[in-house]
């Protein structure tokens, strides 16, 4: 199982069984926080690329926060993957 699948599973587990103090739960239950974090993390990634520092760390933050943002808004990552798959030429 890849880490994307693990994070999707984690999001759904946290939704159905919230854990006290979980940052993931905070993102999943607060759409405006989730939106703000995606925007902030994308900004940080772009800055990291431009400065050529910390790119992997910042890209990982973007993926994690984007997955939680999609889940918070009931957008299934599987549907996004299927859409990308349909675009294959
Ligand atoms: N993959 C992540 C993950 N990536 C990033 N983050 C958090 O995202 C936040 C990033 O926000 P900020 O940039 O504001 O924080 P920061 O202190 O500046 O951190 P960095 O920029 O240095 O990452 C930090 O609090 C990170 O800990 C994550 N928090 C959780 N996970 C996964 O979620 C799992 C469950 O965690 P809970 O959130 O505790 O349920 C963990 O085991 C991980 O697998």
TrEMBL record:
Keyword Electron transport: no
Listed InterPro entries: HisE (IPR008179), PRib-ATP_PPHydrolase-like (IPR021130)
Keyword Amino-acid biosynthesis among UniProt keywords: yes
Top-rank lineage group of the source organism: Bacteria
Pathway linked to the protein: Amino-acid biosynthesis; L-histidine biosynthesis; L-histidine from 5-phospho-alpha-D-ribose 1-diphosphate: step 2/9
Entry's EC annotation: 3.6.1.31
Reaction it catalyzes: 1-(5-phospho-beta-D-ribosyl)-ATP + H2O = 1-(5-phospho-beta-D-ribosyl)-5'-AMP + diphosphate + H(+)
Record family assignment: Belongs to the PRA-PH family.
Protein name: phosphoribosyl-ATP diphosphatase
Keywords recorded for this protein, A-Z: Amino-acid biosynthesis, ATP-binding, Histidine biosynthesis, Hydrolase, Nucleotide-binding
Annotated CDD domains: NTP-PPase_HisIE_like (cd11534)
């Amino acid at each position: 199982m890849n880490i994307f699948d693990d994070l999707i599973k984690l999001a759904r587990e946290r939704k159905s069984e919230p854990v006290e103090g979980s940052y993931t739960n905070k993102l999943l239950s607060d759409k405006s926080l989730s939106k703000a974090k995606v925007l902030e993390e994308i900004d940080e990634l772009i800055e990291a690329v431009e400065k050529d520092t910390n790119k992997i760390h910042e890209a990982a933050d973007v993926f994690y926060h984007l997955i939680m943002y999609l889940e918070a808004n009931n957008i299934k990552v599987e549907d996004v993957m299927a859409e990308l798959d349909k675009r294959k030429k």
